[in-house]
DNA sequence: CGTTAACATGAAGGTCGGTTCCGTTTGTCG
DNA sequence: CGACAAACGGAACCGACCTTCATGTTAACG
Protein backbone atom coordinates (compact mmCIF):
# COMPACT_ATOMS: atom_id res chain seq x y z
CA UNK A 1 0.00 0.00 0.00
CA UNK A 2 2.53 2.67 -1.04
CA UNK A 3 1.16 6.18 -0.90
CA UNK A 4 1.82 7.03 -4.51
CA UNK A 5 4.95 9.14 -4.07
CA UNK A 6 3.04 11.76 -2.13
CA UNK A 7 5.60 13.90 -0.32
CA UNK A 8 7.68 11.78 2.07
CA UNK A 9 6.32 11.63 5.58
CA UNK A 10 7.75 13.84 8.22
CA UNK A 11 10.29 12.05 10.41
CA UNK A 12 8.06 11.83 13.48
CA UNK A 13 5.16 10.71 11.35
CA UNK A 14 7.13 7.87 9.85
CA UNK A 15 8.29 6.83 13.29
CA UNK A 16 4.77 6.86 14.65
CA UNK A 17 3.47 4.90 11.72
CA UNK A 18 5.91 2.14 12.55
CA UNK A 19 4.98 2.26 16.20
CA UNK A 20 1.30 1.96 15.35
CA UNK A 21 1.93 -0.94 13.02
CA UNK A 22 3.99 -2.75 15.63
CA UNK A 23 1.49 -2.06 18.38
CA UNK A 24 -1.37 -3.22 16.20
CA UNK A 25 0.43 -6.44 15.36
CA UNK A 26 1.10 -7.11 19.01
CA UNK A 27 -2.38 -6.19 20.20
CA UNK A 28 -4.19 -8.10 17.47
CA UNK A 29 -1.94 -11.09 17.97
CA UNK A 30 -2.54 -11.16 21.67
CA UNK A 31 -6.19 -10.23 21.95
CA UNK A 32 -7.71 -10.70 18.52
CA UNK A 33 -9.46 -8.36 16.16
CA UNK A 34 -11.75 -7.04 18.85
CA UNK A 35 -9.06 -5.05 20.66
CA UNK A 36 -10.03 -1.45 20.92
CA UNK A 37 -8.31 1.20 18.89
CA UNK A 38 -7.51 2.98 22.11
CA UNK A 39 -5.54 -0.05 23.32
CA UNK A 40 -3.52 -0.05 20.16
CA UNK A 41 -2.87 3.67 20.53
CA UNK A 42 -1.83 3.25 24.14
CA UNK A 43 0.57 0.44 23.25
CA UNK A 44 2.05 2.60 20.53
CA UNK A 45 2.37 5.51 22.92
CA UNK A 46 0.28 7.79 20.71
CA UNK A 47 -3.24 9.19 20.73
CA UNK A 48 -6.10 7.59 18.83
CA UNK A 49 -6.06 10.53 16.47
CA UNK A 50 -2.60 9.49 15.33
CA UNK A 51 -3.76 5.99 14.58
CA UNK A 52 -6.51 7.47 12.43
CA UNK A 53 -4.09 9.78 10.69
CA UNK A 54 -2.27 6.74 9.36
CA UNK A 55 -5.18 4.39 8.84
CA UNK A 56 -8.61 5.72 7.89
CA UNK A 57 -10.47 3.04 9.85
CA UNK A 58 -9.77 0.18 12.20
CA UNK A 59 -10.69 -2.15 9.37
CA UNK A 60 -7.87 -0.72 7.27
CA UNK A 61 -5.49 -1.73 10.01
CA UNK A 62 -6.95 -5.22 10.15
CA UNK A 63 -6.76 -5.48 6.39
CA UNK A 64 -3.13 -4.41 6.37
CA UNK A 65 -2.34 -7.15 8.87
CA UNK A 66 -4.39 -9.70 6.96
CA UNK A 67 -2.67 -8.88 3.70
CA UNK A 68 0.70 -9.33 5.30
CA UNK A 69 -0.30 -12.66 6.81
CA UNK A 70 -1.81 -13.96 3.59
CA UNK A 71 1.26 -12.91 1.66
CA UNK A 72 3.49 -14.82 4.05
CA UNK A 73 1.22 -17.85 3.94
CA UNK A 74 1.22 -17.80 0.15
CA UNK A 75 5.00 -17.63 0.20
CA UNK A 76 5.20 -20.56 2.56
CA UNK A 77 3.06 -22.69 0.27
CA UNK A 78 4.95 -21.53 -2.79
CA UNK A 79 8.17 -22.49 -1.03
CA UNK A 80 6.74 -25.94 -0.41
CA UNK A 81 6.36 -26.32 -4.16
CA UNK A 82 10.14 -26.06 -4.48
CA UNK A 83 10.84 -28.74 -1.93
CA UNK A 84 11.22 -32.30 -2.94
CA UNK A 85 10.11 -35.32 -1.03
CA UNK A 86 6.97 -37.39 -0.90
CA UNK A 87 4.22 -34.94 -1.97
CA UNK A 88 1.87 -35.71 0.89
CA UNK A 89 4.63 -35.16 3.40
CA UNK A 90 5.50 -31.87 1.76
CA UNK A 91 1.88 -30.78 1.93
CA UNK A 92 1.36 -31.91 5.50
CA UNK A 93 4.57 -30.31 6.68
CA UNK A 94 3.65 -27.01 5.06
CA UNK A 95 0.24 -27.04 6.69
CA UNK A 96 1.65 -27.91 10.09
CA UNK A 97 4.26 -25.21 9.92
CA UNK A 98 1.83 -22.53 8.77
CA UNK A 99 -0.78 -23.55 11.32
CA UNK A 100 1.71 -23.52 14.17
CA UNK A 101 2.70 -20.00 13.32
CA UNK A 102 -0.89 -18.90 12.91
CA UNK A 103 -1.95 -20.42 16.20
CA UNK A 104 0.25 -17.96 18.04
CA UNK A 105 -1.61 -14.98 16.62
CA UNK A 106 -5.24 -14.67 17.65
CA UNK A 107 -6.25 -12.17 15.00
CA UNK A 108 -4.66 -14.23 12.26
CA UNK A 109 -6.66 -17.22 13.46
CA UNK A 110 -9.84 -15.16 13.34
CA UNK A 111 -9.04 -13.89 9.87
CA UNK A 112 -8.27 -17.40 8.69
CA UNK A 113 -11.55 -18.50 10.21
CA UNK A 114 -13.26 -15.98 7.96
CA UNK A 115 -13.75 -12.88 10.06
CA UNK A 116 -15.81 -10.38 8.03
CA UNK A 117 -13.26 -7.59 8.41
CA UNK A 118 -10.84 -9.34 6.10
CA UNK A 119 -13.07 -11.35 3.83
CA UNK A 120 -13.52 -8.81 1.08
CA UNK A 121 -10.04 -7.37 1.03
CA UNK A 122 -6.94 -9.46 0.50
CA UNK A 123 -7.49 -10.73 -2.99
CA UNK A 124 -3.93 -11.06 -4.18
CA UNK A 125 -2.61 -13.22 -1.37
CA UNK A 126 -5.57 -15.54 -1.60
CA UNK A 127 -5.06 -15.85 -5.32
CA UNK A 128 -1.42 -16.84 -5.00
CA UNK A 129 -2.30 -19.16 -2.16
CA UNK A 130 -4.98 -20.92 -4.18
CA UNK A 131 -2.72 -21.40 -7.13
CA UNK A 132 0.15 -22.83 -5.15
CA UNK A 133 -2.16 -24.98 -3.08
CA UNK A 134 -3.79 -26.41 -6.19
CA UNK A 135 -0.45 -27.65 -7.43
CA UNK A 136 0.50 -29.08 -4.07
CA UNK A 137 -2.78 -30.94 -3.95
CA UNK A 138 -2.52 -32.21 -7.50
CA UNK A 139 0.91 -33.68 -6.84
CA UNK A 140 -0.16 -35.46 -3.70
CA UNK A 141 -3.18 -36.84 -5.47
CA UNK A 142 -1.01 -38.01 -8.37
CA UNK A 143 1.11 -39.86 -5.85
CA UNK A 144 -2.03 -41.46 -4.48
CA UNK A 145 -1.46 -40.21 -0.95
CA UNK A 146 -4.16 -37.55 -0.79
CA UNK A 147 -7.84 -38.36 -1.18
CA UNK A 148 -8.75 -38.00 -4.83
CA UNK A 149 -11.71 -35.72 -4.28
CA UNK A 150 -9.89 -33.11 -2.21
CA UNK A 151 -10.01 -29.56 -3.54
CA UNK A 152 -8.57 -26.18 -2.69
CA UNK A 153 -11.97 -25.26 -1.31
CA UNK A 154 -11.80 -28.24 1.04
CA UNK A 155 -8.50 -27.00 2.38
CA UNK A 156 -10.02 -23.55 2.90
CA UNK A 157 -12.87 -25.10 4.79
CA UNK A 158 -10.58 -27.17 6.98
CA UNK A 159 -8.35 -24.19 7.66
CA UNK A 160 -11.35 -22.01 8.49
CA UNK A 161 -12.27 -24.57 11.10
CA UNK A 162 -8.70 -24.59 12.28
CA UNK A 163 -8.68 -20.81 12.72
CA UNK A 164 -11.84 -20.99 14.73
CA UNK A 165 -10.59 -23.76 16.99
CA UNK A 166 -7.24 -22.11 17.58
CA UNK A 167 -8.83 -18.74 18.35
CA UNK A 168 -11.35 -20.33 20.69
CA UNK A 169 -8.62 -22.25 22.43
CA UNK A 170 -6.73 -19.02 22.96
CA UNK A 171 -9.90 -17.60 24.50
CA UNK A 172 -10.01 -20.43 26.99
CA UNK A 173 -12.21 -23.02 25.34
CA UNK A 174 -11.30 -26.63 26.05
CA UNK A 175 -10.28 -27.30 22.46
CA UNK A 176 -7.03 -28.48 20.97
CA UNK A 177 -5.97 -27.25 17.57
CA UNK A 178 -3.21 -29.82 17.27
CA UNK A 179 -5.69 -32.64 17.65
CA UNK A 180 -7.98 -30.86 15.21
CA UNK A 181 -5.25 -30.72 12.61
CA UNK A 182 -4.13 -34.29 13.23
CA UNK A 183 -7.64 -35.56 12.60
CA UNK A 184 -8.40 -33.26 9.68
CA UNK A 185 -5.17 -34.11 7.89
CA UNK A 186 -5.83 -37.81 8.38
CA UNK A 187 -9.18 -37.16 6.78
CA UNK A 188 -7.47 -35.65 3.78
CA UNK A 189 -5.11 -38.53 3.33
CA UNK A 190 -5.96 -41.27 0.84
CA UNK A 191 -7.17 -44.47 2.44
CA UNK B 1 -36.89 -24.27 34.11
CA UNK B 2 -40.27 -24.47 35.84
CA UNK B 3 -41.05 -21.32 37.76
CA UNK B 4 -41.47 -23.06 41.08
CA UNK B 5 -45.26 -23.06 41.29
CA UNK B 6 -45.42 -19.28 41.40
CA UNK B 7 -49.01 -18.34 40.64
CA UNK B 8 -49.98 -19.49 37.13
CA UNK B 9 -49.49 -16.89 34.41
CA UNK B 10 -52.38 -14.86 33.20
CA UNK B 11 -53.82 -16.18 29.95
CA UNK B 12 -52.45 -13.38 27.76
CA UNK B 13 -49.09 -13.65 29.45
CA UNK B 14 -48.82 -17.36 28.73
CA UNK B 15 -49.85 -16.76 25.16
CA UNK B 16 -47.25 -14.04 24.73
CA UNK B 17 -44.55 -16.15 26.32
CA UNK B 18 -45.16 -18.81 23.70
CA UNK B 19 -45.13 -16.24 20.93
CA UNK B 20 -41.81 -14.85 22.16
CA UNK B 21 -40.28 -18.29 22.40
CA UNK B 22 -41.41 -19.18 18.90
CA UNK B 23 -40.27 -15.85 17.48
CA UNK B 24 -36.90 -16.18 19.17
CA UNK B 25 -36.41 -19.68 17.80
CA UNK B 26 -37.25 -18.50 14.31
CA UNK B 27 -35.15 -15.34 14.49
CA UNK B 28 -32.11 -17.03 16.03
CA UNK B 29 -32.37 -19.89 13.60
CA UNK B 30 -32.51 -17.59 10.62
CA UNK B 31 -30.11 -14.84 11.58
CA UNK B 32 -28.01 -16.14 14.43
CA UNK B 33 -27.45 -14.99 17.96
CA UNK B 34 -26.81 -11.43 16.86
CA UNK B 35 -30.42 -10.69 15.97
CA UNK B 36 -31.71 -7.73 17.86
CA UNK B 37 -34.23 -8.11 20.63
CA UNK B 38 -36.45 -5.68 18.79
CA UNK B 39 -36.57 -8.03 15.80
CA UNK B 40 -37.64 -10.86 18.03
CA UNK B 41 -40.31 -8.67 19.58
CA UNK B 42 -41.56 -7.56 16.21
CA UNK B 43 -41.78 -11.15 14.97
CA UNK B 44 -43.70 -12.10 18.09
CA UNK B 45 -46.02 -9.14 17.61
CA UNK B 46 -45.21 -7.72 21.03
CA UNK B 47 -43.13 -4.88 22.42
CA UNK B 48 -39.58 -5.32 23.67
CA UNK B 49 -40.82 -4.75 27.19
CA UNK B 50 -42.83 -7.92 26.92
CA UNK B 51 -39.81 -9.91 25.90
CA UNK B 52 -38.02 -8.60 28.96
CA UNK B 53 -40.97 -9.42 31.17
CA UNK B 54 -40.51 -13.08 30.31
CA UNK B 55 -36.73 -13.24 30.03
CA UNK B 56 -34.52 -11.00 32.16
CA UNK B 57 -31.86 -10.60 29.48
CA UNK B 58 -31.25 -11.52 25.88
CA UNK B 59 -28.70 -14.01 27.10
CA UNK B 60 -31.37 -15.81 29.09
CA UNK B 61 -33.26 -16.30 25.85
CA UNK B 62 -30.16 -17.61 24.12
CA UNK B 63 -29.48 -19.91 27.03
CA UNK B 64 -33.02 -21.25 26.96
CA UNK B 65 -32.60 -22.08 23.27
CA UNK B 66 -29.18 -23.59 23.85
CA UNK B 67 -30.44 -25.79 26.65
CA UNK B 68 -33.22 -27.06 24.48
CA UNK B 69 -30.84 -27.80 21.63
CA UNK B 70 -28.32 -29.55 23.85
CA UNK B 71 -31.04 -31.59 25.45
CA UNK B 72 -32.24 -32.75 22.05
CA UNK B 73 -28.71 -33.50 20.91
CA UNK B 74 -28.04 -35.51 24.05
CA UNK B 75 -31.24 -37.45 23.42
CA UNK B 76 -30.21 -38.15 19.84
CA UNK B 77 -26.88 -39.57 20.97
CA UNK B 78 -28.51 -41.54 23.76
CA UNK B 79 -30.92 -42.95 21.21
CA UNK B 80 -27.97 -44.02 19.10
CA UNK B 81 -26.78 -46.09 22.03
CA UNK B 82 -29.93 -48.18 21.75
CA UNK B 83 -29.49 -48.87 18.09
CA UNK B 84 -27.68 -51.90 16.90
CA UNK B 85 -25.45 -52.19 13.90
CA UNK B 86 -21.76 -51.70 13.26
CA UNK B 87 -20.67 -49.22 15.95
CA UNK B 88 -18.86 -46.86 13.62
CA UNK B 89 -21.87 -46.68 11.35
CA UNK B 90 -24.10 -45.94 14.31
CA UNK B 91 -21.76 -43.18 15.43
CA UNK B 92 -21.36 -41.66 11.99
CA UNK B 93 -25.08 -41.78 11.30
CA UNK B 94 -25.84 -40.05 14.59
CA UNK B 95 -23.33 -37.31 13.85
CA UNK B 96 -24.62 -36.81 10.31
CA UNK B 97 -28.20 -36.62 11.45
CA UNK B 98 -27.49 -34.20 14.28
CA UNK B 99 -25.26 -32.05 12.12
CA UNK B 100 -27.81 -31.83 9.34
CA UNK B 101 -30.41 -30.59 11.76
CA UNK B 102 -28.00 -28.16 13.35
CA UNK B 103 -26.90 -26.77 10.01
CA UNK B 104 -30.39 -25.41 9.45
CA UNK B 105 -30.25 -23.25 12.58
CA UNK B 106 -27.66 -20.51 12.56
CA UNK B 107 -27.74 -19.79 16.26
CA UNK B 108 -27.40 -23.45 17.11
CA UNK B 109 -24.35 -23.61 14.87
CA UNK B 110 -22.88 -20.63 16.67
CA UNK B 111 -23.59 -22.14 20.06
CA UNK B 112 -22.06 -25.42 18.99
CA UNK B 113 -19.07 -23.49 17.74
CA UNK B 114 -18.65 -22.16 21.25
CA UNK B 115 -20.34 -18.77 21.29
CA UNK B 116 -19.68 -17.14 24.69
CA UNK B 117 -23.38 -16.58 25.40
CA UNK B 118 -23.97 -20.27 25.91
CA UNK B 119 -20.63 -21.55 27.10
CA UNK B 120 -21.18 -21.17 30.81
CA UNK B 121 -24.79 -22.21 31.00
CA UNK B 122 -26.05 -25.52 29.73
CA UNK B 123 -24.25 -27.92 32.01
CA UNK B 124 -26.77 -30.72 32.17
CA UNK B 125 -27.18 -31.29 28.45
CA UNK B 126 -23.43 -31.28 27.94
CA UNK B 127 -23.00 -33.77 30.72
CA UNK B 128 -25.48 -36.22 29.27
CA UNK B 129 -24.00 -35.69 25.84
CA UNK B 130 -20.48 -36.43 27.02
CA UNK B 131 -21.52 -39.58 28.79
CA UNK B 132 -23.44 -40.98 25.86
CA UNK B 133 -20.74 -39.98 23.41
CA UNK B 134 -18.06 -41.67 25.49
CA UNK B 135 -19.89 -44.97 25.23
CA UNK B 136 -20.49 -44.57 21.52
CA UNK B 137 -16.80 -43.90 21.02
CA UNK B 138 -15.69 -46.78 23.20
CA UNK B 139 -17.80 -49.22 21.24
CA UNK B 140 -16.52 -48.07 17.89
CA UNK B 141 -12.97 -48.25 19.13
CA UNK B 142 -13.56 -51.74 20.49
CA UNK B 143 -14.75 -52.72 17.04
CA UNK B 144 -11.54 -51.29 15.62
CA UNK B 145 -13.36 -48.91 13.30
CA UNK B 146 -12.62 -45.65 15.10
CA UNK B 147 -9.11 -44.35 15.65
CA UNK B 148 -7.92 -45.60 19.00
CA UNK B 149 -6.82 -42.23 20.32
CA UNK B 150 -10.12 -40.41 19.70
CA UNK B 151 -11.74 -38.83 22.74
CA UNK B 152 -14.92 -36.99 23.61
CA UNK B 153 -12.90 -33.81 23.59
CA UNK B 154 -11.82 -34.53 20.02
CA UNK B 155 -15.45 -34.82 18.99
CA UNK B 156 -16.21 -31.51 20.71
CA UNK B 157 -13.36 -29.91 18.84
CA UNK B 158 -14.49 -31.30 15.51
CA UNK B 159 -18.07 -30.24 16.16
CA UNK B 160 -16.98 -26.78 17.20
CA UNK B 161 -15.29 -26.47 13.85
CA UNK B 162 -18.41 -27.80 12.21
CA UNK B 163 -20.58 -25.19 13.90
CA UNK B 164 -18.25 -22.48 12.72
CA UNK B 165 -18.17 -23.71 9.14
CA UNK B 166 -21.92 -24.18 8.94
CA UNK B 167 -22.61 -20.74 10.42
CA UNK B 168 -20.11 -19.10 8.09
CA UNK B 169 -21.59 -20.89 5.11
CA UNK B 170 -24.99 -19.59 6.09
CA UNK B 171 -23.48 -16.11 6.17
CA UNK B 172 -22.29 -16.49 2.61
CA UNK B 173 -18.77 -17.84 2.97
CA UNK B 174 -17.66 -20.25 0.25
CA UNK B 175 -17.47 -23.17 2.67
CA UNK B 176 -19.20 -26.51 2.66
CA UNK B 177 -20.14 -28.14 5.92
CA UNK B 178 -20.92 -31.46 4.28
CA UNK B 179 -17.43 -31.69 2.89
CA UNK B 180 -16.09 -30.63 6.27
CA UNK B 181 -17.92 -33.43 7.99
CA UNK B 182 -16.97 -35.99 5.35
CA UNK B 183 -13.31 -35.21 5.82
CA UNK B 184 -13.42 -34.92 9.59
CA UNK B 185 -15.25 -38.20 10.01
CA UNK B 186 -12.78 -39.92 7.73
CA UNK B 187 -10.10 -38.54 9.99
CA UNK B 188 -11.79 -40.13 12.98
CA UNK B 189 -12.07 -43.51 11.36
CA UNK B 190 -9.42 -46.12 12.06
CA UNK B 191 -6.98 -46.63 9.23
C1' DC C 1 -69.89 -4.26 36.48
C1' DG C 2 -66.19 -2.50 39.36
C1' DT C 3 -61.75 -3.04 41.33
C1' DT C 4 -57.26 -4.40 41.21
C1' DA C 5 -53.05 -6.48 40.22
C1' DA C 6 -50.75 -8.32 36.43
C1' DC C 7 -49.26 -7.27 32.04
C1' DA C 8 -47.94 -4.62 27.72
C1' DT C 9 -45.79 -0.82 25.42
C1' DG C 10 -42.12 1.75 23.27
C1' DA C 11 -39.77 5.92 24.04
C1' DA C 12 -35.95 7.15 26.82
C1' DG C 13 -31.61 5.83 29.24
C1' DG C 14 -27.18 3.74 29.49
C1' DT C 15 -23.04 1.86 27.65
C1' DC C 16 -19.63 0.62 24.56
C1' DG C 17 -16.48 1.48 20.92
C1' DG C 18 -15.32 3.55 16.44
C1' DT C 19 -14.52 8.10 14.44
C1' DT C 20 -14.06 13.16 14.21
C1' DC C 21 -12.23 17.66 15.13
C1' DC C 22 -9.81 21.50 16.70
C1' DG C 23 -6.46 23.59 19.79
C1' DT C 24 -1.64 22.61 20.46
C1' DT C 25 2.93 20.87 19.33
C1' DT C 26 6.75 19.95 16.24
C1' DG C 27 9.56 19.09 12.15
C1' DT C 28 11.14 21.45 8.03
C1' DC C 29 12.75 24.99 5.17
C1' DG C 30 14.23 29.62 3.82
C1' DC D 1 15.71 32.10 14.09
C1' DG D 2 11.03 32.65 12.49
C1' DA D 3 7.03 31.01 9.75
C1' DC D 4 4.14 27.54 8.26
C1' DA D 5 2.34 23.24 7.12
C1' DA D 6 2.20 18.74 8.95
C1' DA D 7 1.22 15.97 12.66
C1' DC D 8 -0.50 15.02 17.38
C1' DG D 9 -3.72 14.30 21.33
C1' DG D 10 -7.74 13.12 23.42
C1' DA D 11 -12.26 14.96 24.69
C1' DA D 12 -16.45 14.98 22.39
C1' DC D 13 -19.46 12.92 19.05
C1' DC D 14 -22.31 9.39 17.12
C1' DG D 15 -24.65 5.18 16.04
C1' DA D 16 -25.86 0.62 17.56
C1' DC D 17 -28.01 -2.21 21.05
C1' DC D 18 -29.44 -3.88 25.31
C1' DT D 19 -32.30 -2.62 29.11
C1' DT D 20 -35.52 0.16 32.02
C1' DC D 21 -39.55 2.64 33.36
C1' DA D 22 -43.66 5.53 33.47
C1' DT D 23 -47.98 5.21 31.49
C1' DG D 24 -51.83 2.83 29.52
C1' DT D 25 -54.40 -1.73 29.01
C1' DT D 26 -56.64 -6.05 30.32
C1' DA D 27 -57.57 -10.49 32.51
C1' DA D 28 -59.43 -12.24 36.79
C1' DC D 29 -62.53 -12.39 40.49
C1' DG D 30 -66.26 -11.08 43.70
Distance between the termini of chain A: 45 Å
The Cα radius of gyration of chain A reads: 19 Å
Care to count the β-strands of chain A? 0
Task: Tell the overall outline of chain A.
Answer: elongated
Largest sheet of chain A: none
Q: Pick out the low-confidence regions of chain A.
A: none
Helix content of chain A: over 70%
Strand content of chain A: under 5%
Mean pLDDT across all residues of chain A, rounded?
96
Regarding quaternary structure, what we see is homodimer
What string, H for helix and E for strand, traces the elements of chain A in order?
A: HHHHHHHHH
Query: By helix and strand content of chain A, what is the structural category?
Result: mainly alpha
Annotation field: number of helices of chain A: 9
Give the chain pair forming the largest contact, with residue counts. Answer: A-B, 31 and 31 residues
Descriptive overview:
The structure is a homodimer of 191-residue chains. The mean pLDDT of chain A is 96. In chain A, helix 4 packs antiparallel against helix 5, helix 4 runs parallel beside helix 7 (124-142) and helix 6 (106-113) packs antiparallel against helix 8. With 191 residues, chain A is mainly α. Chain A has helices at 11-31, 37-44, 48-54, 58-82, 87-103, 106-113, 124-142, 152-170, 177-188. Chain A binds chain B through residues 113-114, 119, 147, 150, 153-154, 156-158, 160-162, 164-165, 168, 173-177, 179-180, 182-188, 191, and chain B through 113-114, 119, 147, 150, 153-154, 156-158, 160-162, 164-165, 168, 173-177, 179-180, 182-188, 191. Chain A binds a DNA duplex (30 and 30 nucleotides) through residues 7, 9-13, 16, 36-38, 41, 46-50, 52-53, 56-58.
Amino acid sequence: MSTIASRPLRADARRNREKVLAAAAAAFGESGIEVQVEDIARRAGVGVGTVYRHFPTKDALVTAMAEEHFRRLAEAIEAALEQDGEPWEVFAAAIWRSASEAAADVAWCEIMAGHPSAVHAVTEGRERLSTAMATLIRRAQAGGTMRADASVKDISTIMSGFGHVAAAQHAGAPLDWERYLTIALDGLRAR
